[in-house]
Design brief:
Blueprint (H helix, E strand, L loop, with lengths): L5 H6 L7 E5 L16 H15 L3 E5 L17 H11 L5 E2 L14 E4 L13 H9 L3 E4 L10 H9 L2 E4 L1 H15 L5 E5 L4 H12 L4 E4 L1 H10 L14 H13 L9 E5 L9 E4 L8 E5 L1 H12 L3 E5 L12 H12 L3 E4 L2 H9 L8 E2 L3 H8 L5 H10 L1
Parallel strand pairs: 1-2, 1-5, 2-4, 3-4, 5-6, 7-8, 7-12, 12-13, 13-14
Antiparallel strand pairs: 9-10, 9-11
Helix pairs in contact: 2-3, 4-5, 5-14, 7-9, 8-9, 10-11
The protein binds adenosine-5'-diphosphate and magnesium ion.
Length: 397
Amino acid sequence: MKFLRFSDICASGQAQGKRVFIRADLNVPQDDAGNITEDTRIRASLPAIQLALGAGAAVMVTSHLGRPTEGEFRPEDSLAPVAKRLGKMLGREVPLISNWVDGGFEVQPGQVVLLENCRLNKGEKKNNPELAAKLGKLCDIFVHDAFGTAHRAEATTYGIAETAPVACAGPLLAAEMDALTQALLEPKRPLVAIVGGSKVSTKLSILKTLATKVDQLIVGGGIANTFLLAAGKRIGDSLAEPEMVREAQQVMDIMKARGAEVPLPVDVVVADEVSILARANRLSADEVGPHDRILDVGPKTSAKLADIIAHAGTIVWNGPVGVFEYPQFAGGTKMMASAIAHSEAFSIAGGGDTLAAIAKFDIANDVGYISTGGGAFLEVLEGRILPAFEVLAKRAG
Ligand code: ADP
Ligand code: MG
């Protein structure tokens, strides 16, 4: 997919003296007193801002924060704490501008201002055309750098990309686009996907889309339980969705018809409860009793999956293969994480609990790309073209 890159625009001197509007994702968690508890997203927004400042642009940055009601300002929805933290990181004052939609504020080349929570503007969510037109007039160059909102078509994520004189991808968004393209559109084969987690129903469209693309589709966690049911196995008291058995069968059929496969667990780790005190037992996948709950894949399965991963050209990972939050049931996910870390393949991973597993098993530096956008990442896996990608490609002409 073709799109303009802000880094190229800066490198060629085209941002010099220009008004640059950056849509960042500064939606950081805060405690009840409004203190920022985790600032990864602010840190991640720095490259785009520094690029713009270095290129001699007058820089405006905005983001959403929380879920305010449009047109109704409450102090807790303010980006004020973010402006402060951003200022500290940049080593300069970052003024916060309220009521900015109609302009009337000053920002000189070499300066940066933060524009108050964009979700306070009436018409933001529905991408109101008049709002979008006003946003476009505020700038010469629009920079989309918020992958976490790339699956939404709002005024600051889509409308402004249509109305601004130039619309391009910031370094964060461009990195996501590059990684997703490399993994899904131009993958080195074999392409192996791992889809784990709790429920088939939440990931059915992902499974179906991946089934048409990948060479091997590893299912894990509660999802694998439903596939085991579909394969006629007994799964006792395990988390599963019997009403999804037909869909699971369909996914296996799609793969089979392409000469690809869905390797199912041959052994499992069971317990009679999900708790820190639970006693774990290893069983063959044919030996599961009526009161057993399958909470992880067994060591034989782990070894088999690790072998598949070791021979992959590209790996896409979403979802743990067991209840990795408890050490008794973490073995499968840990083994997989380690196999991904050691693999020569290009790997991409995303999803809330997947990121937690990556942190827990400390492999962040060994994954090719870790996606920052939960919902947006999953929608790409579903085969959707995200609004942000679509509009930036259209503007690149
Ligand atoms: P992600 O957030 O990465 O997309 P999910 O939210 O789909 O992943 O699933 C993660 C959850 O699935 C974890 O909390 C994990 O405990 C749970 N899980 C994994 N395996 C099983 C299993 N066999 N039975 C029940 N829950 C499971
Ligand atoms: Mg989750």
